[in-house]
Amino acid sequence: MWSKMPSPDNSPERASHSGNGWKILVVEDEAIIAMDIQSILKKIGYSGAEVVHSGEESIQKVADGRPHLVLMDIKLKGNMDGIQAAHQIFDTYGVPVVYITAYGDENTMKRANGTARFGFITKPFEESDLQTIIQGALQKAYI
Questions:
Q1: Which of 2, 61, 70, 83 has the most CB atoms around its CB within 10 Å?
Q2: pTM for the predicted model, two decimal places
Q3: H or E element: which one contains 65?
Q4: pLDDT along the chain (143 residues), means of 10
């Protein structure tokens, strides 16, 4: 479990862009997809990623542990979708959110556009695409 505040050894200022020290939260309600994303993250150097399955859980996890970045599916089961959760996470905690979704329809894109400051990636995606968007989001947010 993450501590409330990053320690100096894994603070954004000292963390390597290759993944070492960066804490990433994956919000994905499909278990197989969540495991696949977590596996890709580990392969590209982000081994400390945690997974939650709902918007509500994501807000609680961010409040408890303050990850450096959230990878958020837009369509989630439950009362809160990823766009609603992303709004609350960024507005309340300042944690950047990158959307990962299979839904690229116009209405979804319009709703997400206001909160997609740090990136948007459509499933299925390549490992290198995910790595590029994560690095860009971390640089934009912390460098």
A1: 70
A2: 0.84
A3: helix 55-65
A4: 37 46 95 95 92 97 95 93 94 94 78 79 92 95 89
